[in-house]
Design a protein that fits this description.
Shape: flat
CATH architecture of the largest domain: Beta Barrel
Number of strands: 26
Number of domains: 4
Distance between the termini: 122 Å
């Protein structure tokens, strides 16, 4: 065989082998690796073409990133307190045999009891670059020390500027400048189904963002009441309800819209076990903004009153029949206060209030929310129906004492309701004290509602010693939160401690 033939046969054999190996490889690849052919779309994707893509998911990163630096972690501490139980003393049956004091503690127990130190935490919203912060009243009530931690881990000591138990709101302040803060949104524009984010520090965790929708508005859940807080005499509840997850520690944090604006202050959860089970509640920012401005400007909330009694929701048929309540749209007026704003404007029992300043009100909470935005002396229009006819009148809102005057915040000394004087040297020496302030007379106020008696000598306020009236007055200027007095009754050896509850209402 010639060389040329041999080379030809070898080349053909090699080419055939290469083609066979390549074909087998492609076959195996198709069969075993599941490789998808570029550009080929299976039949089940027939509905999706270049002009019919699924919309991109909503992106929460922009509002969350903007808002989280302005939401703070609030930690509070309430010092341990020694409290006199002031219980009636039982007669010691062995007093005649062994003397008056022996076995006395066994039968009567200690005259003083200890309330241990308490710590708690919540959240807050910075509303100005110079350190004003909104939070819930229940977050800071009674606190002796308040620490604010920003998302960047910087810590500040805070002081209470003012509180409003009726809305469960408080304003605190840190001494700082150039802080991030949240822009106010408009809670009236919140719509059912709208996306919102809840930001706070739940369960002592770091800053946390959760998402949900507005599921209801003007919700009244009865959580702000005298049973929960004795100072809440005229509660205002008109919550924004959401399904954003909120847990203990979120209180006082922000509810924001997708523009990063704060539209509510998270305050409560619907729960049977203390933790989130589906719904949370926020105070509308339009209410909070008014409360905050009043506290900062006047020292107390300027609460306006329409001067009516009205029917709440879920009224039984029996109650309707007993009180003569008719069916109709709006808020049914069951009575008017004498010389109050409503009576002066011509409203009567049996009227249905349907609008305030053109804003529709169908329920009590909706009406309360609108009135809460005004102060005494403000003039509003009221649309109401009487005997099927729609009427409009104007009313000038009044304060709690039925005048239009601005209510000034009282000093703590005035709220105590007593007359004080420096204890005389003779009494101080006889009772082995270095000085103090004697309560000469109790006129009313917080002292009247406590168990303290006239003649009591105050030797310290919240643990700080006082020797004279000047020191007492200076200490009272700087106190925020609860107060307790330590002292003696001249002629008795025991030291007593009295907690004093200051009621802003």
């Amino acid at each position: 065989m010639k060389l040329k033939q041999i080379l030809s046969i070898a080349a053909i054999s090699a080419t055939t082998a290469i083609i066979s190996v390549w074909a087998f490889g492609k076959f195996s690849q198709k069969r075993f690796t599941g490789e998808q052919e570029a550009g080929k779309i299976p039949a089940n994707y027939v509905r999706y073409d270049g002009n019919n893509k699924v919309p991109a998911a909503i992106d929460f990163t922009a509002p969350a990133t903007s808002a989280t630096p302005a939401v703070v972690h609030i930690k509070t501490k309430t010092k341990a307190k020694q409290v006199s139980n002031n219980l009636p003393r039982q007669r010691n049956p062995f007093s005649d045999m062994f003397g008056g004091e022996m076995f006395d503690e066994f039968f009567n127990g200690p005259r003083m009891s200890i309330i241990p130190e308490q710590r708690a935490s919540g959240s807050g919203v910075i509303i100005s670059d110079d350190g004003f912060i909104i939070t819930n009243n229940h977050v800071v009530a009674g606190a002796d020390e308040i620490t604010v931690t920003l998302s960047n881990k910087k810590n500040y000591k805070a002081s209470i500027i003012g509180t409003d138990p009726n809305t469960d709101l408080a304003v605190i302040k840190v001494e700082a400048t150039g802080l991030p803060y949240l822009i106010y949104g408009n809670s009236d524009e919140a719509k059912l189904g709208q996306w919102v984010l809840a930001i706070g520090y739940p369960l002592n965790l770091d800053v946390t963002v959760t998402a949900g929708i507005v599921s209801a508005k003007a919700r009244n859940i009865g959580i702000i009441n005298p049973n929960n807080n004795a100072e809440a005499k005229n509660p205002v509840e008109s919550f924004i309800q959401t399904d954003a997850a909120v847990n203990p520690g979120n209180s006082g944090g922000a509810l924001i819209n997708l523009n990063g604006e704060v539209i509510g202050i998270n305050s409560a959860i619907a729960s049977q076990n203390g933790s989130y089970i589906g719904y949370s509640y926020a105070i509308p920012i339009n209410i909070a903004k008014k409360v905050v401005n009043d506290i900062i400007k006047y020292g107390t909330v300027q609460r306006a009153y329409l001067g009516i009694t009205y029917v709440g929701e879920n009224v039984s048929e029996e109650q309707k029949k007993a009180e003569g309540i008719k069916d109709g749209e709006g808020v049914f007026v069951t009575g008017v206060t004498e010389n109050g704003a409503a009576e002066t404007a011509g409203l009567k029992k049996g009227d249905f209030i349907t609008k305030l300043n053109g804003v529709s009100v169908k329920t009590g909470p909706e009406m309360v929310e609108q009135i809460a935005r005004y102060k005494p002396g403000d003039k509003i229009s009221i649309t109401y129906t009487r005997d099927g006819k729609e009427l409009v009148t104007n009313a000038v809102l009044k304060n709690k004492i039925n005048t239009t005057a601005i209510v000034k915040g009282s000093s703590l000394i005035e709220k105590l309701g007593g007359e004080f004087a420096t204890v005389d040297k003779k009494t101080a020496q006889a009772n082995e004290i270095s000085g103090g302030v004697v309560i000469k007379k109790i006129n009313g106020g917080a002292l009247k509602n406590s168990r303290i008696q006239e003649g009591f000598v105050i030797t310290s306020v919240n643990g700080d010693e006082v020797k004279n009236l000047d020191e007492f007055n200076e200490l009272m200027k700087n106190i925020k939160g609860n107060i307790y007095f330590d002292g003696i009754y001249p002629g008795f050896t025991e030291t007593y401690r009295y907690p004093i509850r200051i009621n802003d209402n």
